[in-house]
């Protein structure tokens, strides 16, 4: 039986092949995992002037939040627009478009396989973090862990759809990834990667709530670090963003394919 | 009764291309005031292809061959006109249609670069819904026809161009397609690999009855595989018919070279044909094909000939002339 063009066998073979492919790049992936230590740098900055206390975060809350932010980022990072752009420009997309499987599933599988490859490196980095900050060690309850995992998965889905929407511009423009860079700054500030959103003025918070960014890092990281968070509101917002983005991706993809010139192929 | 598997009616494609003048001024102008130009790549093309036919597409670079191929497989949309392949409109990309066709591009690959071809083959088998046992059998059969074996378990990046092309063909044919669109399938391959790919395609057509539409820069591909050719120049189809009758039209004369026992003068051959060469007792004449038999027997009667050879002008030369002129006139 197929759901959205996928069968168990397609999922199995795509994931196992992409995992084998990602293992070929394990050193590169380890470096990527290491390059995601921005939350730890931010933790150092925030800890030095005890700024967390201004918005009600203890030192322990801060260190757990930033470690959680690091982990959420590791498992929600998306690069589909860059791969897609390269494939579209080099003509690699053409054979995928002629197969009875939506090409985006290939990119989904390579992201999931990459996350699996990142897992051991993320665990090692977390272990090193605890080694230097033993007081921050905590084990979330199974329930909270599962909710945080679900929120991270939804965060990945939002990011993936958002980038796929941008990637669809590749059908019109050769450099669609430039649009992605436009989103990077708001993502950096409003996702909670640089600071928990609680540290922002209420007016900025209000504005941020209308964007998908707070639900990408801040929301899952707060669940994982056992901080006070509006679970129902967060999950509903994540689902709403998916429901907004999914049809947009489908429509823009359909329109884009009509415009495709199969350049380089 | 209409037997056509592929029907192309008034097919046209126009690309919009941005023009840019060289230099800094041109760059600034291009940035603020981009000038788009409409470039017609294919103009009102009509043809049909029957099931099981092997048809070659001939034309110079940029003639529109690949654009037509891309429209036939549904990769790009026509500006006007329509295409039907097996009753399907390719641009709808219905699953039934996609399972019937394949597109092989000589210089593009679908195989995963760092993994052995076998991994990509398994993914393709799953995507096309080929059962594992059946997929294994097809891989073995195709691998045997392509003379490829242990290469299937070596990373693609370690394979030679010829081995990669064979693996690409295997990956493209694992779902047993009945329509093959081949764009320069032998490009860059050495003579042996070209010949292997050619015999494989002929064998695949013979065994499965698949319809094949092929573009190639190597005339040997076309002469070995395609009894029928479509010639295109600047987006317009100007010939659709047998390869042999095309060469007859383009070159209605044969080259007759003979060695004489004794010396002769050029004027001795007036009335026999067009004198091409006359030296050291060796003479070459161009004789119209319809007069060939009578002229050769006259020559044999009137001269003391030691050796005689009749040749077609080289097909590459003939087709080269065709590409330049873009017409049969």
Description:
Chain A is an all-alpha fold and 265 residues long. Helix content of chain A is 69%, strand content 0%. Chain A has helices at 8-23, 26-35, 38-48, 59-74, 80-90, 93-97, 103-132, 142-167, 177-190, 202-209, 218-224, 231-259. The longest helix of chain A has 30 residues, at 103-132. In chain B, helix 5 (132-146) runs antiparallel to helix 6. Chain B has helices at residues 23-32, 65-72, 95-100, 117-127, 132-146, 161-173, 191-208, 219-225, 243-250, 292-302, 315-325, and strands spanning 4-19, 35-50, 54-58, 80-85, 101-105, 179-183, 211-215, 228-233, 236-242, 253-260, 274-279, 282-288, 305-311. Chain B has two domains: 4-14 and 42-248, 3-Layer(aba) Sandwich (Rossmann fold); 252-311, Alpha-Beta Plaits. In chain B, strands 5-6-7-3-8-9 form a six-stranded mixed β-sheet, with helices on both faces. The mean pLDDT of chain B is 88. Chains A and B meet through helix 1 and helix 6 of A and helix 3, strand 5 and helix 4 of B.
Taking Cα atoms only, what radius of gyration of chain B do you get, to the nearest Å? Answer: 25 Å
- How do the strands of the widest beta sheet of chain B line up side by side? 5-6-7-3-8-9
Number of helices of chain B: 11
The biggest beta sheet of chain A reads: none
CATH architecture grouping of the largest domain in chain B: 3-Layer(aba) Sandwich
Mean pLDDT of chain A, to the nearest integer, reads 90
Principal-axis shape of chain B equals globular
Could you say how many structural domains of chain A there are in total? 1
Low-confidence stretches of chain B: none
Instruction: State the oligomer.
Output: heterodimer
Largest interface: A-B, 28 and 33 residues
- Number of distinct beta strands of chain A: 0
Series of H and E elements of chain A:
HHHHHHHHHHHH
Q: Beta-strand level of the residues of chain B, as a percent range?
A: 25-35%
Could you tell me how far the N terminus lies from the C terminus of chain B, measured between alpha carbons in angstroms? 33 Å
* CATH top-level class of the largest domain in chain B: Alpha Beta
By CATH's scheme, which homologous superfamily of the largest domain in chain B applies? P-loop containing nucleotide triphosphate hydrolases
Globally, the shape of chain A reads globular
Number of helices of chain A: 12
Radius of gyration of chain A: 19 Å
As a percent range, the share of helical residues of chain B equals 25-40%
């Amino acid at each position: 039986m197929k759901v959205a063009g996928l069968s168990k066998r397609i999922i199995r073979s795509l994931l196992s092949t992409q995992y084998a492919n990602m293992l070929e790049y394990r050193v590169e992936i380890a470096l990527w995992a290491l390059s995601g230590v921005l939350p730890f740098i931010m933790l150092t900055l925030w800890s030095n002037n005890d700024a967390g206390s201004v918005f009600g975060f203890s030192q322990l809350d801060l260190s757990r939040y930033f470690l959680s932010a690091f982990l959420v980022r590791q498992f929600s990072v998306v690069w589909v627009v860059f791969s897609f752009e390269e494939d579209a420009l080099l003509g690699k997309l053409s054979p995928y478009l002629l197969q009875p499987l939506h090409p985006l599933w290939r990119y989904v599988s390579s992201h999931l396989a990459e996350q699996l490859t990142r897992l051991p490196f993320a665990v090692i980095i977390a272990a090193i973090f605890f080694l230097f900050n033993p007081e921050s060690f905590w084990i979330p309850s199974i329930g909270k862990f599962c909710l945080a995992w679900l929120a991270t998965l939804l965060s990945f889905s939002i990011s993936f759809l958002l980038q796929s929407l941008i990637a669809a511009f590749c059908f019109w423009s050769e450099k669609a990834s430039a649009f992605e860079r436009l989103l990077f700054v708001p993502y950096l500030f409003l996702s909670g990667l640089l600071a928990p959103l609680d540290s922002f003025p209420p007016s900025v918070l209000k504005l941020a709530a209308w964007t998908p960014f707070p639900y990408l890092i801040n929301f899952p990281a707060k669940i994982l670090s056992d901080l006070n968070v509006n679970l129902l509101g967060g999950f509903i917002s994540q689902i709403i963003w998916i429901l907004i983005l999914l049809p947009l991706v489908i429509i823009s993809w359909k329109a884009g394919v009509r415009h495709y010139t199969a350049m380089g192929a | 009764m209409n037997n056509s598997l592929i029907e192309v009616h008034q097919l046209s494609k126009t690309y919009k291309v941005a023009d840019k003048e060289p230099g800094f001024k041109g760059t600034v102008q291009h940035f603020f005031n981009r000038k788009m130009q409409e470039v017609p790549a294919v103009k009102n093309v009509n043809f049909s292809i029957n099931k099981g036919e092997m048809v070659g597409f001939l034309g110079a670079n940029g003639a529109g061959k690949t654009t037509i191929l891309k429209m036939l497989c549904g990769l790009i949309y026509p500006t006007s006109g329509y295409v039907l392949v097996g009753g399907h409109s390719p641009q709808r990309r219905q699953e039934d249609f996609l399972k019937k066709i394949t597109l092989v591009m000589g210089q593009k690959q679908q195989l995963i670069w760092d993994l052995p071809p076998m991994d990509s083959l398994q993914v393709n088998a799953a995507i096309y819904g080929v059962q594992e046992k059946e997929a294994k059998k097809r891989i073995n059969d195709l691998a045997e026809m392509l003379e490829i074996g242990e290469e299937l378990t070596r990373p693609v990046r370690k394979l030679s161009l010829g081995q990669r092309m064979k693996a690409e063909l295997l990956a493209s044919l694992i779902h047993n397609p009945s329509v093959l669109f081949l764009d320069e399938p032998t490009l860059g391959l050495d003579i042996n690999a070209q010949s292997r790919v050619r015999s494989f395609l002929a064998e695949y057509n013979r065994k499965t009855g698949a319809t094949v539409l092929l573009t190639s820069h190597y005339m040997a591909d076309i002469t070995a595989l395609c009894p029928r050719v479509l010639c295109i120049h600047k987006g317009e189809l100007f010939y659709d018919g047998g390869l042999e009758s095309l060469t007859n039209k383009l070159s209605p004369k044969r080259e007759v070279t003979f060695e004489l026992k004794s010396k002769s003068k050029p004027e001795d051959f007036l009335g026999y044909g067009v004198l091409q060469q006359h030296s050291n007792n060796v003479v070459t004449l161009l004789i119209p094909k319809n007069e060939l038999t009578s002229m050769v027997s006259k020559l044999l009667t009137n001269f003391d000939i030691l050796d005689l050879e009749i040749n077609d002008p080289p097909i590459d030369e003939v087709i080269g002339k065709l590409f330049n002129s873009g017409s049969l006139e």
